[in-house]
Specification:
The chain is α+β, with helices and mostly antiparallel strands and 457 residues long. Helices cover 18% and strands 25% of the residues. α1 packs antiparallel against α2 and α5 runs parallel beside α6.
Length: 457
């Protein structure tokens, strides 16, 4: 089934006549944003949950499992009902290499989709991810027993014995790399992809596992690595305006340390995910993580410690500076919620709504659009591929008539106008509408209407 053309803006992706550029640090300073209006909704969605299984995560895992029904309800509101889903779970445990750290043996879980319990599988079957798809006959084809919520609760209950040096970005990249046999079949070529991270610590994805060196000679204040604690992840993975990370006090303007000798630049992970799809807009990311501010360093005896940025009855969370930067690099293809809420149901619902609206599109312009007059609209075939073609759409020259009968001198044409009712959650309050007149609207796979606008910043 086709649906009316809708708009989705992706602020971080800059589009050129040659195709789609992947994100770089400099792109965030460019003045263009992109609006995607799919003419046909892609109903295939692969969802990868990356779950922190370290010792402090029991309550948070339970809270997300309890809120999954609201996540599912939002996806069921997609036109045609629940999309064709693959749901997989990996842990943040990527080990610590050769260093003998409890819970961090070898490569940990290594980005492998975790085997599903026999209790929810048909007798004699095995699986590493959940499948729930339209069977073409009015029903669903599933590889599990019971409800989707019950199945998710089972596969997402990872326990709390995992590595305390969490590497969610490494885990996601490895899981989707195509290098793991047991992950085969999860990632479908034509499906959209969502990666959802749950963690109360920041990302500590290492380029050089020497950052986890557990030699007692290194585990002290005066060593080059400092005490063996997650503060190393902050010291070598983050940079702030105040300079020396081991000095006590508040920090400002903290961001990933992009030239760290130990840690991977987070934008490498963003580019790796976007490169999995011909159209990078087919990738969504979301996080239920710690707030990225405030950032404060204190001392306990001789040891520098990073203060929690937030807390709840479930526990505390570290400032998620690297993870928030990773999420932000996807612009409006990203969503985040604070893990410092005792009830994570609202976060689950919000992320489900974000995915549904991203798949459908939204007519509402997001972002600091300078003015509607700076926007341009094109019909694009095969966006982001080597076969990409574009055709410009003119602005309707009689807005009042066009709104009713599309009596513009040129068709198709577009209007950008205030729509406070539809766009109540949009900072612009503006909606895009394409008028086709008596001609049938476009309705074809791999055909989008693209809107670009100038931003104030």
């Amino acid at each position: 089934m086709t649906k009316p053309i809708r708009t989705f803006l992706a602020a971080s992706l800059v589009l050129t006549t040659a195709g789609c550029e992947l994100y770089t640090k400099e792109d965030s300073k460019k003045s263009g944003i992109a609006a995607i209006m799919p003419t046909v909704v892609n109903r295939d969605l692969d969802v990868l949950f990356v779950v922190d299984n370290s010792g402090s995560m029991r309550e948070e895992q339970d809270a997300v499992a309890a809120g999954f029904a609201l996540f599912e309800a939002q996806l069921e509101a997609l036109e045609g009902g629940l999309p064709n889903l693959h749901i997989g779970v990996v842990s943040t445990n990527m080990g610590a290499g050769q260093y003998g750290i409890s819970g961090c043996d070898g490569d940990g879980d290594g980005g492998r989709l975790l085997a599903i319990s026999d209790a929810i599988l048909p007798e004699g079957s095995t699986a590493h991810f959940l499948v729930d798809e339209d069977d073409g006959q009015g029903g669903r084809a599933r590889n599990y027993i019971g409800t989707l919520g019950e199945a998710f609760t089972t596969v997402s209950n990872l326990g709390i014995s995992g590595c305390g040096f969490e590497q969610p970005l490494n885990a996601a990249r490895r899981a989707l790399s195509g290098s793991l046999q047991q992950n085969e079949g999860f990632l479908r070529a034509d499906a959209q992809l969502a990666v959802i991270i749950l963690s109360d610590e920041d990302d500590c994805s290492a380029e050089d596992f020497a950052v986890f060196n557990s030699d007692p000679a290194q585990d002290r204040a005066s060593s080059s690595l400092g005490f063996l604690s997650s503060f190393r992840c902050f010291e070598f993975g983050v940079v702030c305006d105040e300079g020396e990370p081991r000095n006590p006090g508040s920090r400002s303007n903290c961001r990933p340390r992009n030239e760290s000798e130990y840690m991977v630049d987070v934008h490498e992970y963003a580019n790796a995910l976007k490169s999995l799809k011909a159209n990078p807009h087919d990738v969504f990311v979301a996080g239920i993580v710690g707030d990225d501010t405030p950032v404060h360093v204190r001392f306990s005896d001789d040891e520098p410690l990073l203060e929690p940025s937030c807390s709840s009855s479930n526990g505390e969370a570290a400032p998620a500076i690297r993870l928030v930067s990773f999420l932000d690099s996807f612009g409006l293809r990203s969503a985040k919620a604070s893990i410092c809420n005792a009830d994570l149901s609202a976060a689950c619902s919000r992320i489900g709504k974000f995915l549904r609206e991203g798949m459908e599109g939204s007519p509402c312009l997001q972002g600091p659009v300078h003015s509607p007059g700076t926007c341009s609209v094109e019909i694009v075939h095969d966006l982001g591929s080597s076969q990409e073609t574009r055709r410009s759409i003119a602005r309707c020259d009689n807005a009042a008539a066009a709104a009713a009968t599309a009596a513009s001198s040129t068709l198709p044409c577009y209007l950008i106008a205030e729509d406070a009712q539809t766009c109540v959650a949009s900072e612009t309050g503006l909606a895009v509408k394409v008028e086709y007149g008596p001609a049938a609207p476009l309705a074809a796979e791999n055909v989008d209407v693209l809107v670009t606008c100038q931003l104030d910043s």
